């Protein structure tokens, strides 16, 4: 009887994990899926520039020692991206544009105005910090670098700009 109990517990645990994986709790995403999710949930999906800028921030974080070394590690960090970014359902209508932009960023495309920015917030949000140097507003977001206050030369979000990036044919 004692030898059956661990096997039974193992079977129950496997069944519970299988059930949870169906709700996304243990689903493993590819780097492409994680990039798509960040772009989809963090940008105005009608703006390729906004998606590429979000993807550029993700890649800047991947390159930094302060963040995880993978796209999925960066995107799934707690309180860094939209709530439910890794679990919420995405609308399939915008999937082709999101996928194209995600593939382009993973292949090396960056928004030419993003620089070293690792942060962004909704363009309508007004933060009261003195260390935010804004580099770009696009796709509904304002992108910025954190700098020492004396090195900030653009302390307010720039006017929105679209149409800088183009899909590759």
TrEMBL record:
Keyword terms, alphabetized: Hydrolase, Signal
Pfam family, one: Hydrolase_2
Residues in Cell wall hydrolase SleB domain copies: 47-144
Region described as Disordered: 150-169
GO MF assignments: hydrolase activity
InterPro entries: Cell_wall_hydrolase_SleB, SleB_dom1
Listed PROSITE patterns: PROKAR_LIPOPROTEIN
Stated name of the protein: Cell Wall Hydrolase
Signal peptide limits: 1-21
